[in-house]
Amino acid sequence: MTPEEAGIDADIAEILRSDGIEKLYPTQTSTIPHVIEGKNLVAAVPTASGKSLIGYIALLRAFKQGHRGMYIVPLRALASEKYEELKHFEKIGARVAVSTGDLDSKGENLRKFDIVVATSEKADSLLRHSSTWIGELSVLVVDEIHLINDAERGPTLEMVIARLRKLVPNIQVVGLSATIKNSKQIANWLEAEHVTSEWRPVDLKYGSYCDGEIFFTNNERRRIEVEEDHLWALIEDATKDDGQALVFVNTRKSTETTALKYRGLMARMIGAGRANVEDGAETNDDEEEETEVGNILSASLKSGIAFHHAGLTGRQRTKVERMFKDRKIRCLVATPTLAAGINLPARTVIVRDIYRYDSQLGNTLIPVMEIKQMLGRAGRPRYDKQGEAIIISRNREQASLVLDEYLLGEVESVNSQVGNEKALRNNVLSAVATRLATSEEELKHFFSLSFYAFVNDLEPLMYGVERAMTYLEDNGMVVSEGGRLRATSFGKRVSDLYIDPMSAVIMRESIDRFEAGKELGFLQSICSTPDMIPLFCRSSELVEFNEIAEGRKKELLQRIDDAEDATLYLSQLKTAVMLLDWIGEEREETILQRYNIYPGDLRNKAETATWLVSSAAELSSLLSSGAKQNIEMLAMRLKKGVSERLLDLAALNDIGRTRALALYSHNYKSRKDIAVADVRRLSLVPGIGERIAEKIIQQSRRAKKPVAPQKEEIPEDWFFRE
Asked: Quick check: 244 and 331 in contact, CB under 8 A?
């Protein structure tokens, strides 16, 4: 079926043709007529089967009728990807924006756009700030709607959908999902048409590998030539004839060791002299320090094989993803987080591990849904006629398990996570603060609109709502006056800042006690909030950090003697001490080695701490505390990773901790020094160069004083779990 035959306007169809879409996929022909008619829809179809276009057509239909639409995605990287694709339709006048930034912003500037791409957190933030244009939305597209099952992000996504359906009763909701067991149930919740399909644009063969042979579910068998290493034999088979392979393993370390193990073999296979990959580090305005992990990654990339996990910095992950898309990497070894990310298909997907370690349960089987997401990356449209998705089995017994559980087994049902205590605290406060619910009856009605209430007994949820209300009232965030609920100024600000109410309580208790020289104590209290996931304190480190807790007792605002869980307290203290090293200008590689972490972990903790400390500074204004200036200074130091002496330099847009240290050591100690500098001499400072020298001179001449950091958004990596 052509786009026009499906009812798509001719000018939109013309843009689709310019992108190579002459005919629609079967999944699109069975769904697009529904969205063109304005119906709600849940499409549960495989990866790479054209889901995004279904959502785009719904948004463009609304635009053609003079209405606005929003496209919600789970990750910032996906938001950027969808934004770039939707920008193609600016040719017909559609104004497109992407918004994933400041969560304490009303976003009124978005009013001038027809289509807004946002993460679920940003959408929730816009709702909390009562952005006036939100009520003008006529269509909501939710990508990866099955992620309402996610313990961290699921409640936000679910309640954003519920809230928008309450605020805009006639809003069209289009949910896009991978194939899941209870997609019909989600469709019923949304009063939507339900379309499910197993069709894929590239045929996919599923198989279990054992002892040199792949056993496919279609009863085919194929022998693989194996010398010694079974995994390498599969990689070699997959990457011949310009193929690409994705290998999924269960730990970060395994991604690195596997890539390094096969680096030499891959280089020899593709020809050491013709590995068409980028050489050396890239220059970037937000420079990164040299680290062992970065060096290992660079060396690996040159051989045509790489690794990918949440411990890499965002810039490193983006580079790896881009090079794989550009087919400059033949094999990518990754953890399961990649499978839930951006569109990154390969001819062959190899799942090496079906077990992973859980600190509470030991080795556990990875859920079927996650394995299916990995396998679904197999088969590159436009490059491959067929893809292969292979799970390695260690023996015949495991091969039988793989076949029954993963290859032929059913994906788990999606379950609502709204009922957990943290989610209820946040959502109850948000509902009251935005006056969505001004009485207990309205509050309970609001939660009755959730997917949780649709599939479960309402009584446990209502009990949880009551408990959350009691907590908020006891801590001065919500008051009940004559049966009417109202958020206090403190509660409203907490909701706007997008922090957990429990985090705000901890901050309030610490703000007035904070003073210069007690940064460690304040950081420890920040690291004890539910919004910060602390570093794990290994048993071998307990004595060391217990000694720090005792030896630096006077600096700490919370004492180990008062802690309910001493090990958790020491984990929080370890995180705070690491952050203190970060703002004390310790070398990044030293920090990584000392705390046994990855570059991405360090940046994640620093970004989360900056967000929380910036929020504490905002609360200190409300509480009329004299600590605001010191707290703001700490937030600035965390953002840049510098001590006070470098803050003036680090306030420049292009200057991070590495360049600030280089400038300071070459006697450029402030922006005043930069303003009068000679471009040529300044450009000779390591890491600067002529382009950056010219930019920072111009900035310094315009600047009058250091600028306080903008309120930080939630770091994306904050949600990763590995």
From this structure: yes
Distance CA 536, CA 239 (A): 38
**What is the distance between the alpha carbons of residues 262 and 583, in angstroms, rounded to a whole number?**
38
Read off φ and ψ for residue 446, nearest 5 degrees: -60, -45
- How, if at all, do strands 68-73 and 137-142 pair? parallel
In contact, 525 and 558? CB cutoff 8 Å:
yes
DSSP track, 564-621: S-HHHHHHHHHHHHHHHHHHTT--HHHHHHHHT--HHHHHHHHHHHHHHHHHHHHHHH
Write the CATH number of the domain with boundaries 652-705.
1.10.150.20
Can you give the C-alpha Rg of the chain in angstroms?
27
- Give percent of the chain with pLDDT exceeding 70: 95
pLDDT tens-digit map of 1-45: 999 999 999 999 999 999 889 999 999 999 999 999 999 999 999
Of residues 450, 463, 454, the one with CA closest to residue 418: 450
Please give the class, per CATH, of domain 501-651+706-717: mainly alpha
Name the amino acid, one letter, at 360.
Answer: Q
Separation between Cα atoms, residue 474 and residue 491, nearest integer Å:
12
Strand residues in 396-512 grouped as ranges (E): 478-481, 484-487
CATH number of the 421-497 domain: 1.10.10.10
Report residue 227's pLDDT band, with 50, 70 and 90 as the boundaries.
Answer: confident
**Angle formed at CA 124 by CA 119 and CA 126, multiple of 5 degrees:** 95
Model pLDDT, residue 439: 95
CA distances from 534 to 266, 318, 570 (A): 38, 25, 9
Q: What angle separates helix 292-301 from helix 252-261, to the nearest 10 degrees?
A: 40
pLDDT at residue 627, rounded to an integer: 87
One-letter identity of residue 497: L
- Give the predicted TM-score (pTM) of the model: 0.90
Q: Is 356 helix (H, G, I), strand (E, B) or coil?
A: strand
Which residues contact residue 588 at a Cβ distance below 8 angstroms, ignoring those fewer than 6 apart? 289, 291, 599, 602
Kind and range of the H or E element at 391? strand 386-392
The DSSP symbol for 678 reads -
**Diameter over CA atoms, the chain:** 79
| CATH number assigned to the domain with residue range 203-407, chosen from the 4 options 3.40.50.2300, 2.10.109.10, 3.40.50.300, 3.10.129.10 | 3.40.50.300
Fold designation for 10-196: Rossmann fold (3.40.50)
3-state secondary structure 547-561: HHHHHCHHHCCCCHH
CB 2, CB 22: distance < 8 Å: yes
- Residue labelled with tokens 């690996």: 300
Residue written as tokens 């020491």? Answer: 570
Q: 409 with 372: CB under 8 angstroms?
A: no
Whole-number Å distance between alpha carbons of 503 and 500? 5
- Beta-strand relationship, 355-358 and 362-365: antiparallel
DSSP, collapsed to helix, strand or coil, labels residue 716 as helix
The amino acid at residue 464 is G
Does 421-497 match 203-407 at the fold level? no
- Taking each continuous run of H as one helix and of E as one strand, the counts in the chain are 32, 19
Taking alpha carbons only, the member of 415, 420, 398, 417 closest to residue 407 is 398
Which sequence spans correspond to the domains of the chain?
Answer: 10-196, 203-407, 421-497, 501-651+706-717, 652-705
